[in-house]
## 1
Amino acid sequence: MSSAQHLTDLAEGLAEAGHEVVAVASSRGYDNPEKRFPVRETWKGVEIRRIWTPGLGKKARWRRLVDFATFWINATLILLRLRRFDVTVCLTSPPLISSLGQVMASLKGGAVVPWVMDLNPDEAVAAGWLKQGGLAEQVMSTLQKWSFGRAARIVALDRFMAERLRAKSVRADAIHVDAPWSHDDAVRWDVAGREAFRAEHGLTGKFVVMYSGNHSPCHPLDTVLEAAKELAGHATLHFLFVGGGSEHGKVRAFAENQGLKNITCLPYQPKERLSSSLSSADLHLVVMGTPFVGMVHPCKVYNILALGLPFLGIGPEECHLTDLAARLPDRRYARIGRHGDVKGLVEVLREAAATGPLPPSEESRALAAEFSQSRLRPRLIDVIAAAGQGHAA
């Protein structure tokens, strides 16, 4: 899960900077609830407390609700026993966990800094999981407004998310805008790894179009899958879906039901294989669902830029992907498509395959440097430290 990886990076950076860091997280794996972690451990100077949940998974809404409710209850019990903190950084999974952070800060003191990886209940309403104006949405919106209104700082991921926060009456001076960083330490252009990964999965000689990461309704793949169906007879085009999430199984089912041999599905790859996996693509797909602009952020694009590889962004005209694409002069490295335009996407993919693999772009890498961990993580650490000093006991 990207948010967990970024929080891990942040915690490690805070510890390296001399801060005392305690992390409270689930004891189960995000995409594989069967995977369990120790209840307590110390990792690279970070004290970790883990929360038990039943691990019912994401196959039904009631399962998610029970997991979230259990997380909230057990997190409350752990936080009540822990000491006062100068700053509590809250992510957004499970939803509105920043409200719990604010309750604890009210009891014990200290600042709260929500790091808004996704914006709920807005996302849940846009996805059809919650009814707008319903009791659950109203309660969640009230909690969101209360917790955000009391936050020392709020970290938004792009200008669209910042606009949404301002529309919710969040103070402009409380909002800090920075994207999630690329993983400089784990991602590099790997020629040998590329060839080995492609050979391992029968992709040698193919033009590989890859979607890598979380497969979620926020990043709808319907247009891509229909394009793959149209291109089933293409001699070299092959679609590779790597990752997990609620929609990953649907991609696999679509390929099986349609009898498509030009689609391969793989699980999340270990961090040590991330370079070879990402380097194996000739064109990366980055998808932003139209209703979700400003609610979620296409963070996978930064690793792609760091490699210098081409990407095809699929989303609305006004979104962060379009902003990034406009900054790359060579359009072969930053193509943009629209949801529902299967014919247009097929043409773009045929053109890309006819051009063939492109060498890594220095312009893309230069743009990626603006979103590197070495640049953005220290900036966020400074924001957090300043928030703590403003709420010192």
## 2
Amino acid sequence: MKPFPWKNAMGFGLGVLRLPPDQFWRMTPRELACAWGAVMGERAGPLDRPGLEELMERFPDGH
């Protein structure tokens, strides 16, 4: 069994969705997966580094 991809989940929740940390940590993995599906499409696979970079490019945080 693979460990949960916390680094990718945090990158998506905090970086792409721009959730405040308290809201991110209150989410369940299932809720985060639903948000992932809404942004990336239901058939998207796990978030990899190129996928994260693409999202960061599409949705820059302005810093």
## 3
Amino acid sequence: MPVATKVREVHGLDPRALPEEVLTSTEPLLLRGLAKDWPLVRAGLESPRAAIDYLRRFARRDAQVAVLVAPPQVEGRYFYNDALSGFNFHTERPPLGAMLDAMERHLDDARPPSLYMGSTTVDTYLPGLRDENDLDLSAHDPLFSVWVGNRTRIAAHQDVPDNIACVAVGHRRFTVFPPDQLRNLYIGPLDLTPAGQPVSLVDFAAPDHARFSRFAEALAHAQVAELGPGDAIFIPSLWWHHVEGLDPFNVLLNYWWRRTPAYMDSPMNALMLALMSVRDLPDEQRAAWQEIFRHYVFEPDADTAGHIPEDARRTLAPMTPEVARELRARLLQRLNR
């Protein structure tokens, strides 16, 4: 899949003091060597088994984790079945120690089963790992997660939080697209997804350009980043990203955080409500609601509520935790009618 543009690289960053211009970038950034001094990275450079042994030092071996399992023929592409009524994998919940044992057992297989432990909280399942392998993002209170698997191809999707993903073991390829490429990526169902987020239906390894004719336009806007051990990538909120784990054993550690108050709900909830209550209105009513959303949500200005006394504006005033709680309670009451 030819992609001409590479993600812009940044070198020489201090993992203990990442500049705000990196953490607030509106473009993806390849942070070359950001985690190169992590002991897990050094263990992985020694061998995959050394990395597995290192992880075993911290693993709560009895703690069950969610592992996606698929037959060799899917070649690591965790996806739908042909009818889009289910998936080409199943989920098992082995102890973390057993998952690591299985990864080691299949390291030398020519065609191993596909095994993938997705986003798993580091501090819960690998207590102590963070003490030796960490970036200083404490000011942003990020969620710190680990991803472990063999060769994988994760369909293009987007996440609401900002994201720094650090390759600790193996190599990964990220292909990223700006949010405005939604139409050209042919996104699948919103409410039946392989791992929580809607995904592109395009197989990046063999795109069907006849079926997905606009995908060529998406590729014209794509950027690619090849990451090795110790490299990291910053992915801004809502940028689409297709992720490939390229080696027989891959470990990624990532940080997610939002630059919004904790009381703000996910905008996906608003989208689902709009699909239920706005999309299928008569054309003239839908156009009226489009203007209402423009006025109150997408283009508010000083005149939007300027004619209302400040102490009477309530939800039209800047949102506060108290007003958000009241609004949420009112919405729940209406939805549960």
